[in-house]
From TrEMBL:
It comes from the Bacteria. The lineage of its organism: Bacteria, Bacillati, Bacillota, Bacilli, Bacillales. This is Uncharacterized protein. It comes from Paenibacillus herberti.
Amino acid sequence: MNLMSLFFMTRMANGYYALTNLGMSLLDLLPLVKLDGYWILSHGLGIANLRTKAFRAVFQLLRFPGARLAEATRPVNHRERSILLSYGLAAVLFTPCFWL
C-alpha cells in the first residue's frame, strides 16, 4: 500500500465519521422524542413536562372524546391546549417510527 492510497482511505474514513456525527446531531434536534430538541422546544414554549402533559391530554381525549381534561392536567388556555394536543398527536405517531 502506498502513501497516496493510505491518505485517501484516511480522508474517506474522516468523511464518513463527519457525516455520521452530523446525522447524529440532526437526530438529536428532533423535538418529538426526549432528546435535546425536546428540551429546547419545551423551554421555548414555557411548558414544563411538555411530553407528559401532551400524552395525558391526547389519551384523555381518545378515551373520553367529550370529557374535559382532569383539573391537574387541564391547560390554562386555548393556546396551551392546542399545543399539547398538536405535540401529543405528532409524538404519539412519530415515536414508534423513530425506534424502528
